[in-house]
C-alpha cells in the first residue's frame, strides 16, 4: 500500500468536510463524552473540517456537493476573483452583400442585424465589466485572413436560427460504422495523387490519414483559423499537423503517460493538454516546452477546455472534481465538487458566466463561475455524459451520452432561477430546483450508437457523432 498513489493522497492531504458550527460542536461533544479519543484523533489528523456559521445544510444540499476523492472544496478555494467576462471584439466593418441591401430600412442599415443581439450570447462592443484587461495575457494579432473569417462569421450569424423551447435545433447525426475494425480499405493510400484527390472538392475521397503517433489517439482539436490540427495520444505526445500539407509540424513532449485531451485556445496560438499524469499543461505552438503546468488533481485529467476569453482553462478529472486554472499565473481559482464519478465532458456558456460538466454518473452539473457555486443538476442520462455543447447564443444545452441519446435542455430557464444572494455565496448552499425534467426539452435516441461528440454550427444546427456499437 505504501507505493499506491491514491493511498498516498489520503495520507498526505486531508479530506475536506464542510459542516456547520452547531453540528461540529455536537459531534465533538458526543465523541468526548463517549471517550472516543481514538476516533477524535483520527478526525483531527485526517479531516480538514471547514466550519461555517448559520443553518446546517439539508441532506439534499449535502448530497449534491459530495463525491470527490478529497471531499468538498474548502470555501476559500472558490473565493478569488475570476474575470469571467468576454474580451471586446475588434471593430470590423461588415461590407453589405447585394442580398443584404434589399433588406435595408430608411437609415440604410441592414434590418436583419438588430434583433440578433441577445443578453446571453452575442459579443457586444462595450467593455464587459467582468472581463479581464485586454492585455492581461498576450494574444495573437489578428491577421487579414482572420478578419475575413470574422466577417464571414458575422454574416453567418445573421442567418442563425434563434432557438428556444418552441424552436429546437435540427440534429444531424453521423454514425461511424466498422470503427472498431479500423476499416480503411476505402482509399487507395499508395496512389500518387492521394493529396489532390482528398483536397479537390469534385473528386475528393472521404478521408485523410495523418501518420505519426505510436499509440491510440484520444483527443483532437482544430485551430480557429482551420490551418492546424492538434492530436493527443497514448504515446505521451501532442502533435501539431498542417492542414495544408497534411504533415506533422511539431511533436510536443512533456507528458510521460497517455494524453487524454487537448484543445486550442479560441484565439489560437495557445493550447492545453491533460493526461494520465494528473497534470494539465498550457503550451504555445512555437514553444517546445509547456508555458504553464496546472498541478493539483489527484487522478487523471480527462478533459480540458479554454474559457471563451482564453484567460482560464477548465479541467475535468477522474478524481471527480472540476478545476478552473488561471492562465496568467497557473493558479487554481475554482474547485467544483459534486460529481460521483470521473468527469468526461466540459463546456463554457457563450457569455463566459457558466460551466456545464458531465461525468460517468450520468449527471450534468451547472456552475456559476463568478460565485463559485453549483447552480443546477440535470438528471436524465443513464450512462456517461461524453459531450456537452451550448447553442451559439446559449439558449440550449445539448448533452450526448453512452446511453445512446442526445438530450436538449433549456439553459435560459436553468440559469435564470439562480438566486445568488450573499448568504448563498458565503455558505455555498444553493437550493437546487428538483425540476430537471421541466428543463428537458427533448431526448433523441440512436439505435445503438453512443453519442461521443456534439457541435453547434454557426447557424445552430447540431452535429452529433458516434461509433456504432454492435450489442
Automatic annotation (TrEMBL):
Alphabetical list of InterPro entries matching this protein: TFIID_NTD2, TFIID_NTD2_sf, WD40/YVTN_repeat-like_dom_sf, WD40_PAC1, WD40_repeat_CS, WD40_repeat_dom_sf, WD40_rpt
**Region described as Disordered: spans on this chain:** 94-148
Repeat positions for WD: 210-245, 252-283, 294-335, 336-369, 378-410
Q: What are the TFIID subunit TAF5 NTD2 domain coordinates in residue numbering?
A: 1-47
CDD domains for the chain: WD40
Biased composition, class Acidic residues, residue ranges: 94-105
Which SMART domains has this protein been placed in? Answer: WD40 (SM00320)
Q: Does the keyword DNA-binding apply?
A: no
Compositional bias ranges of the Basic and acidic residues kind: 117-128
Q: Where found?
A: Nucleus
Any one of the GO CC terms? transcription factor TFIID complex
Q: Which UniProt keywords apply?
A: Nucleus, Repeat, Transcription, Transcription regulation, WD repeat
Q: Do you know which PANTHER family this protein is assigned to?
A: TRANSCRIPTION INITIATION FACTOR TFIID (PTHR19879), TRANSCRIPTION INITIATION FACTOR TFIID SUBUNIT 5 (PTHR19879:SF4)
User: Record's family?
Assistant: Belongs to the WD repeat TAF5 family.
User: Can you name this protein?
Assistant: Transcription initiation factor TFIID subunit 5
